[in-house]
Structure formats: structure tokens, C-alpha cells
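Moderator note: this is an archived Q&A kept for reference. The question asked for a predicted structure of one protein chain; the sequence and the answer are reproduced below.
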Amino acid sequence: GSRVIPTVAANGSPAFGQYKPSESGDGYEPWALQVLEIEDGRIVEFSFFLDTETLFPLFGLPLQFDA
């Protein structure tokens, strides 16, 4: 039930904000910033960063959104 939103690149790599359903059941809250490392057209590394309060605003991602 999570949602993933593309954002600006992180050090030149594709990045996405991952949101999980909020505990109240009203919308979504941040879960992780996901960063992909691509080589020769293939994903070779998939990193998750959980400090969403700091990172999401830096990447222009909202700290919550409605369903």
C-alpha cells in the first residue's frame, strides 16, 4: 500500500520518495528516500535513507499527502 514519487537526482542517481499509509488511515507519511545506482542500464545498488524529516524537504518532497 505504499506510494513512490520520483524526485530530483541524488548525486546523479535516480531518487524516489517512498510513503507508507499513515497510522490514522488518512493519507500517507514518509518512509524512506530510495536511491538507485545504475550501470550499463541495470540497477546495481538500491539504497534507502530513513531520515525523512531532513531529506524529504531537501529533495522537494512533502512530509505528508492525502490519498
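Archived answer notes: The chain has one helix and four strands.
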